[in-house]
């Protein structure tokens, strides 16, 4: 089932999300629905707060980047109870977008490598280093779990220029093909 994506300005996007227990009601269905929602919206990542749930879970599909990074050929994953425990490598500037912020893309500076601890769909604990596009997408999705969105990370001038556009998105004044919830729509 495709879920509506909560737009910028929705309070759930600013909360610190919490870990879940293995008996979390409807977990497998939620994960399936999030993959389906992400695909329908042409996204490469989707975090649970973006579908209105303040829990530390996100899905990712980075297979589209395999041409440049062959190691991503099968990269379709769910991260549950995710916690980044170390960041390193050289900082990189990469343009980002977000399904909660349609039609806006901005350069964002982030560390090139991260060490993340999480559990997989079977609640087996995993600890892995990532770099390249995987590290970039993970950091973007992970930020959603801490109430952070990419416009928070752009330079102050850009941030000022974005303010009106972000307000329009909150009001639903945006052309978007997938289903969304707009916090300020009248
Ligand atoms: Ni996002």
Measured between the Cα atoms of the first and last residue, the distance is: 26 Å
> What is the overall number of helices?
3
Q: Give the strand order, joined by hyphens, for the main sheet.
A: 2-3-4-5-6
Mean pLDDT: 97
- Total number of domains: 1
* DSSP strand count: 7
Largest sheet: 5 strands, antiparallel
Q: Could you please say which CATH topology applies here?
A: Peptide Deformylase
CATH architecture: Alpha-Beta Complex
Q: Strand portion, in percent?
A: 25-35%
Low-confidence stretches: none
Protein model, in words:
- It is a single chain.
- The chain has helices spanning 27-40, 132-145, 156-171; strands at residues 5-6, 45-47, 57-61, 76-98, 101-119, 125-131, 180-181.
- By secondary structure, it is of the alpha+beta class.
- The protein has a single domain (5-181), classed as Peptide deformylase (Peptide Deformylase), CATH 3.90.45.
- It has a five-stranded antiparallel beta sheet, with helices on both faces.
- Strand 4 and strand 5 form a beta hairpin.
- The longest helix has 16 residues, at 156-171.
- The chain is globular, with a radius of gyration of 16 Å.
- The model has no long low-confidence stretch (mean pLDDT 97).
- Bound molecules: nickel (II) ion.
